[in-house]
Specification:
It is built from 1 helix and 10 strands, in the order H-E-E-E-E-E-E-E-E-E-E. It is extended and about 80 Å long. Strand 3 and strand 4 (52-64) form a beta hairpin. Strands 1, 2, 3, 4, 5, 6, 7, 8, 9 and 10 form a 10-stranded mixed β-sheet that branches. It has a domain at 30-104 and 123-153. It is mainly beta and 162 residues long.
Length: 162
Amino acid sequence: MKFLKNIWSLSLLSLSVISFSQCSSTKKLQNSTPFEIGNAYYQNWFSGVKGGGSGTNLYIPIISNPNNIMLDSAYFRGNQVKLEFKNDTIFIGHLKKSTNKKPDIIMSSEPFAEYGNQVPELHKRIHFELKEGECVISYNFKNKTRYFKINKVIEKEPKHYR
């Protein structure tokens, strides 16, 4: 009987250790970064022509970056977007909406006629609980991917293109 009790205790302990080890695989947010970020903001944009599209641009200004770290992605409004480095002081992410965009799809009974169709975009699931106006930035530092949360992303006046 004592043998069964020991086996039961050992298996329960093993199960607990295994279940808690999964917690370490979640993404952890850093409290500080090796660079200084300015006031992040976003700006909606709309095309003035039918089928021209619309979207949101996310701007992350860099004040100081002594280690020349490149930001990789931003998690914002339920989306993950790649960040592009522009003019040595700002990273920009482009969130495009398909509401005003006319897809160019060829439908045919001939399989080769559909060759040029675009593959639909799959939205990546983000692993962060974000409130309105919050954003998480991913970057690589010392061969590790790190994450930093920006608590206040400001909305600027929308741009209307004609």
